[in-house]
Amino acid sequence: MNRLHSGNGKRLKTSLVILIGALSLGGCATTGEPQTTASKVDPNESINRDIFAFNDVVDDYVAKPISDSYKWVTPQFVQTGIFNFFNNLKNVNVVINDVLQGKFQQSAEDSGRFLVNSTIGLGGLVDVAKDVGLKQNDEDFDQTLAVWGVPQGSYIVLPLLGPTTVRGIPGAILDTAANPASYIGMPIQLVQMLNARANAQGSLDVVKEGALDPYVFIREGYLQTREHLATDGKSQATNDVDNDFADDAASPKSATDKKAATSTSSTDKANYALRLTAAEQSSNSFGGVTQSFDNTAKSFENASSKIDQLEKQKHSRKAK
Amino acid sequence: MVLKNVKLVAIFIGLLLGVSNVFAADAGTATAKHVVDKFQSELIVVMKNGKQLGYVGRYDKLRDSVTNSHDLNKIARIVVGKEWEKLSEEQQKKLVDVFSRLSIASYAHNFKEYGGEAFTIDSEEETTRGGVVVYAHLSIPNDKDVKFEYHLKENDKSWRIINIVANGVSDLALKRSEYTSILQREGFDTLIAKINEKIDNYSKL
User: Which of residues 139-178 of B touch A (CB under 8 A)?
Assistant: First the structure.
């Protein structure tokens, strides 16, 4: 819950990613019919879809009406102030996780950010640090666990709380425990939730307007954003691998299989191996959380060894 | 004398060829960036005139911008993954057509106003498979920058965008999950109906 952030979604709704701020609150209309599991990371898709649909109904009938009235009665500067206040408290978590991830310089900057805003920034109501040039970093316990090598595990939609992963649950518990806002007491926390929901409106609109399948849209957006944050944006190599994968998938099947079987290029071999393990995994998987936990770990290893290989090739090509 | 003239002509031709080679090389290396740059500045122009143009006006302006900078055929194919082979030729054509219209419509809908935003290209990098990634960012006044990665591939000697990654979220991967999921769960006709519904909504919003 503490991960809720920004998503001002202003005039320009270009960035699909701001929607992530809204994710904990579930999405929009969805069809609740049975399906075939399409994604390896989501072995419990049918249960998740049901919970997603439930969250959506709760959001439509409870959260959205309350949040709309809140937005209507609360001036924008008050909303911004409240957002800044809770965002500032979250910096305690950011600093702890900076240290746990060995980012010592960043931890010093983030401590400075927290101190400046807590004092000159009137207890955090005004984001003075931004004007000084200290940017807000985003670190949490889930990211720390990722840095420590804990695999993500399968995707889970929790009732009322929304999307997370197996690794995200202990992460969120630690986040809540470390955040001073958790100890303030109920009425103020309610304001935090309301404010977060109100800020998320722009992002939720993007999902409603743009998504063909809101459940899948939010799942992919959530997982990709978490990956991006955990790797501090250094996961572009995987994106590239993804593209290559997509290319293979798009070309005629017989041709790619032949190519993979006969080609001497190590990249193609790596591709083929990855595809084989992927096929194995999907045929073996029967939806157990622990099982998928192991599988994710394995596929992570596969992906990283593939990236290593690609990297090596690049180097050797450069050397030539 | 004649020989001298021939020599001069030869040198002249040589020079011409040399110059044109230089131009060709220049075009070859610079176009991926140019394609992105041109597309981004056309977007900004449309945003600045967004209100006067209206949805239809923006759609008309952006039709050429999007089709000339994106490889919509290829994107539509990748987006449905392995399901592409299972589609008939007619269905494939239909998919490319509605997908292209949806892409333009979503640009026309989302880039309707201008509030001081600016695109900046940061760098360019070749990928292992002969593609190019152009790194850029969008500055929004009073808000965080949005980082963009444009993935381009060469098609018929011109560079075309096949994927845009915004703050780490790959548009292609997102769409691929959505489209294949719908195709598997609900079939081709529902997919087309859903896309048409979105295009329709964009025009009304």
Answer: 140, 143-144, 146-147, 149, 151, 162-163, 165-174, 176-178
